Structure formats: C-alpha cells, structure tokens
Amino acid sequence: MSTDSQLKELALHDITVRFGGLTALDNVSLRVAPGRIVGVIGPNGAGKTTLFNVICGFVQPTSGSLTLDGSPWRPRPHHLNRLGIARTLQGVGQFAGMTVLDNVMVGARHRHAESEALAALDRCGVARYAGAYPGALPYAIRKRIELARALVAKPRILMLDEPAGGLDADEIAWLGALIKETGTTVLLVEHHMDLVMSVCDEILVLDFGKPIAIGSPAEISANPKVTEAYLGAAA
Ligand SMILES: Nc1ncnc2c1ncn2[C@@H]1O[C@H](COP(=O)(O)OP(=O)(O)OP(=O)(O)O)[C@@H](O)[C@H]1O
C-alpha cells in the first residue's frame, strides 16, 4: 500500500438517496483508504452508479455525509479534477470533433498537458492514435483512451465505472494489470466478476440500494447473501 501523504481518504457515512418513492441507496457507509482498490458490485439497479454520482456531486444525498481526509466534504463536479479525483464513464464519452490527444488533454491539470497526455496514451498502449478522431476508432481503443483521459491528471482517487464493459478477455487482462499498477486509490464499479475478484482489496456489495456485504474477495465469494442477491437477480 502506498504511504504517499498526498493520497486522500474518502469516506461515505450513512448515505441515503431517494428518487421520489425509490430508495437508490439505503444507509451506505464506505471508507476508501489511500492506495486501496475498492470494488462496488451488485445486480442491475443496485445503486452503484448512484454511489459514484454522489461522490462526484452529480447527485445530492437525501441524508448522510461524506468526508475527505476526515473533513466534511460536499463534492462538486467542477472541483474534482483539482482535488485529484478522476472518473471514467460507463460508455466512452469522448468529444467527436476533437482529436484523441485533445480529448485526453481536457483531463490534464498542468502546463505540460500535451506531453502528459501523450505519456498517458502511451501507458494505455494507444499513443499511435493521438492524431485520430475517436468516432472512427474501435470501441476497445476508445475505452483505453477514456482511461488515459482519467490517468493524465495523475489522480489520487481513480473512479472506474464499468471499465471492462464491451472488452474481450485479453483486453480485460490488460485492464486488470493496469489497475493494479496504478499505485493510486481506485474505486471500481464493475459487473465482470473475475476482474473485480482479481484486482480488489475490498468489495462492497449493494442490493436494491442496501449494503449487504463488505470484505475481501474471498469473504465476498463465500458470502451466501451475495450469491442469493445475484441468483435472485438472474431468476
Ligand atoms: N436520476 C434518477 N431518477 C430516478 N431514478 C433513478 C435515477 N438514477 C437512478 N435511478 C434508479 O435508482 C436505482 C439505482 O440505479 P443505479 O443506476 O445507481 O444502479 P446500478 O447499480 O448502477 O445499475 P446498473 O448495474 O444497471 O448500471 C435504479 O432503480 C434506477 O432506476
């Protein structure tokens, strides 16, 4: 685990989110310690994206609170980059009218944006596409560009929203290795269980907004409540 004093500890305390009569998150608490890779899993509609949206300030909790490094924190989307928090989107949300390089530079925080963007693209194995336009590229390449856009600012907390969606086994293996070697705090929402189990230190399981389990991959795999939630969802 990293001891970098710049890393941030993020914590959610008893977060509840209601959309009208629907409770999307029901008293969810989570501590994301610096350098840890924390997964959030659960069947469709469990509240995973809502939890990400609360951390990013897109959704205001109905009750509960957040802290960053122990201090009360009210997230705002336009402050995230400055705080060192980067998020990938479920899709590949890139600007079609901008080159790949310009898209990645949007995520940069420093003066040397171009060289940092090229380095991030290189790290993700897609530097050769820097001058291309994203719309013309295959989906797996665009997912890598989305990762480069998040990594370019050297985030302290990297939030990955279904990064394996639409990728094949080789791409997922590559992604797993990249996540492990980032050395940063990672919050991962993902349906691909092999990826989650292989990269995460800790996993939170949600079901209909309720936290039903939290623990190591081995503890989560052996938890009957988790199996039940997934079997129920498949039935
Ligand atoms: N803005 C919103 N207004 C109303 N209901 C919403 C809103 N956002 C999410 N929901 C509902 O909240 C619940 C949780 O949704 P959420 O997208 O967080 O689940 P999820 O676990 O990310 O699902 P998936 O795995 O399908 O992406 C769902 O029932 C969803 O329909």
Mean of residue pLDDT values: 89
CATH superfamily of the largest domain: P-loop containing nucleotide triphosphate hydrolases
The CATH architecture term of the largest domain is 3-Layer(aba) Sandwich
CATH class of the largest domain: Alpha Beta
Helical content, roughly? 25-40%
Rg estimate, integer Å: 18 Å
Taken together, the total number of domains comes to 2
**General shape:** globular
Enumerate how many helices there are, as a single number.
9
User: Main β-sheet, in a few words?
Assistant: 6 strands, mixed
**Which strand-content bin applies to the residues?**
25-35%
Low-confidence regions: 1-5
Name the helix and strand elements from N-terminus to C-terminus, one letter apiece: EEEHEEHEHHHEHEHEEHH
Give structural notes.
- With 235 residues, the protein is of the alpha/beta class.
- It folds into two domains: 10-84 and 155-234, P-loop containing nucleotide triphosphate hydrolases (Rossmann fold); 95-152, no CATH class.
- It has nine helices and ten strands.
- The chain is globular, with a radius of gyration of 18 Å.
- The termini are far apart.
- Residues 1-5 have low confidence and may be disordered.
- The structure holds adenosine-5'-triphosphate.
- It comes from Actinoplanes sichuanensis.
- Keywords: ATP-binding, Nucleotide-binding, Transport.
- InterPro entries: AAA+_ATPase, ABC_AA/LPS_Transport, ABC_transporter-like_ATP-bd, BCA_ABC_TP_C, P-loop_NTPase.
Keywords:
235 residues, alpha/beta, Rossmann fold, 2 domains, 6-stranded mixed β-sheet, 4-stranded antiparallel β-sheet, 34% helix, disordered N terminus, binds adenosine-5'-triphosphate, ATP binding, AAA+_ATPase, ATP-binding
